[in-house]
Amino acid sequence: MFPLQDINPRKRMPIITYTLIILNVLVFFWELSLSDQALQNAFLDLASVPANLTRDPISLEAFMDIMRSMFMHGGWEHILGNMLYLWLFGDNVEDRLGSLLYLVLYFGSGFVAAIAQTLIDPASRIPMIGASGAIAGVLGSYLIMFPGVRVRGIVPLGYFSRMAEWPAWTVLGLWFVLQLVQGFGSLGVPAEYGGGVAFFAHIGGFVAGVVLTWIFMQLVPQPPPTERRQMLYRRAQRGNNINL
Fold first, then answer.
1. Amino acid 31: pLDDT
2. Residue-level pLDDT at 11
3. Rounded alpha-carbon distances, angstroms, from residue 244 to 6, 85, 189, 214, 232
4. d(Cα 186, Cα 198) in Å, to the nearest integer?
5. 3-state secondary structure string, the chain?
6. What are the residue ranges spanned by the domains of the chain?
7. Contact 233, 8 (CB under 8 A)
8. CATH of region 2-241
9. pLDDT in tens, 137-150
10. Which of 44, 125, 142, 236 would suit a FRET pair with 34, their CA atoms being 20 to 30 Å apart?
11. What does pTM read for this prediction?
């Protein structure tokens, strides 16, 4: 499924999610202003490269490279796909966790994603760019907190497609399984033939999101599942009075 909407009203304006989207878009437009050669140099100089991270993993430069990598993208399809998923699922995760824990989840997942991809191919000199690993952590968090929420989207059927509603656990679970299949299928395949997609960054980020959310939910008392569902229904009924 290609998701377009989740049926999950929120209580507050997702300021952090919107800020992250704006920053990613601004950086992308800066990339568009560069020549092809200058852009490649920027990726090599500013983004995280597995070989560099392997050589000097504990340094300010390694930290900054990973941070900068989370705001760089390789093209329109890359950034539009990432920002769509962040916009769809990030608002409710931020709403439930609060700004501080949400930032810890987002950037913590991004760092785990970079480390996971580096462990798989430590000698690679291809820059790791994109917010995919951090956003994968948001998806893992959403799966833990809102597994039964309905997600609307387009299901492709060959030359045709149709709108459908699936529970979040199905949509996000299938997404994760696809990353696993493609990730293990890409092992041993040169990046230029495998499309250069950092599947293990997606896997690592998703798992980090699941683990961090489980920890947060132990630290911060959560309403029982039945009460959480009732809260969702009440918010949905007040839909005209909340930000959708």
1. 96
2. 83
3. 10, 16, 43, 26, 13
4. 9
5. CEEEEECCCCCCCCHHHHHHHHHHHHHHHHHHCCCHHHHHHHHHHHCECHHHHHHCCCCHHHHHHHHHHCCCCCCHHHHHHHHHHHHHHHHHHHHHHCHHHHHHHHHHHHHHHHHHHHHHCCCCCCCECCCHHHHHHHHHHHHHHCCCCEEEEEEEECCEEEEEEEEHHHHHHHHHHHHHHHHHHHCCCCHHHHCCCCHHHHHHHHHHHHHHHHHHHHHCCCCCHHHHHHHHHHHHHCHHHCCC
6. 2-241
7. no
8. 1.20.1540.10
9. 999 999 999 999 99
10. 125
11. 0.87
Token output for 227 = 């009460």
Residue 86 CB neighbour total at 10 angstroms: 24
Higher pLDDT among residues 191 and 37, named by residue: 37
Find where tokens 């809260």 sit. Answer: 231
Phi then psi dihedrals of residue 201, to 5 deg:
-65, -40
